[in-house]
Specification:
Length: about 170
């Protein structure tokens, strides 16, 4: 149920971003980890997004949708190449996916430069919420530092002086 709700929220957000476009077809670039160990998460993100588009009759903002899907392989350099392709060659209207923060950070410069709206479905690097925050970049996930900052605050309040971490 959570995935369905998240997918609908993403579709609604994209619809709001694209609601004023006067195009016959909205191009959405989806980039996610679709191979390797993280493929299950990337496929879930894609499937959830496509389910939302299906529930909206194949439209966002009242416009027909074309989705271009790419596998970033969880590699920042591949993600950056995909963003350049989406923006410079495919002329996408919006990017969805950006499932992991390392790939999102590598893609950030191209997205900010182009002004192309991007909705990250899982990535939430802290620079995007702080000093490098941009008006066209949205995260539907969480800021990565949140759990660690909360644990640090709790440890400080409890008076812990040192911590041992085993992984």
């Amino acid at each position: 149920m959570y995935q369905k709700t998240k997918a609908l929220a993403l579709a609604l957000t994209a619809g709001l971003l694209l609601g004023g476009t006067a195009q016959a077809d909205v191009k959405v670039g989806f980039s996610g980890a679709l191979s390797g160990p993280a493929a299950a998460l990337g496929q879930d993100q894609y499937d959830g997004f496509m389910l939302a588009i299906e529930q909206f009759g194949g439209k966002l903002g009242g416009q027909p949708v074309t989705v271009i899907k790419e596998d970033d392989q969880l590699k920042p350099e591949i993600g950056a190449q995909i963003m350049r392709k989406f923006v410079q060659r495919d002329n996408v209207d919006v990017v969805v996916g950006l499932g992991f923060s390392n790939v999102m950070m590598a893609s950030l410069a191209e997205l900010v430069r182009s002004g192309t709206p991007a909705i990250a479905t899982n990535g939430g690097p802290s620079p995007v919420a702080g000093g490098r925050c941009a008006a066209n970049i949205f995260s539907a996930a969480w800021q990565n530092d949140g759990p660690n900052e909360a644990a640090g605050q709790y440890a400080t309040e409890q008076g812990y002086k040192s911590i041992y971490l085993m992984a």
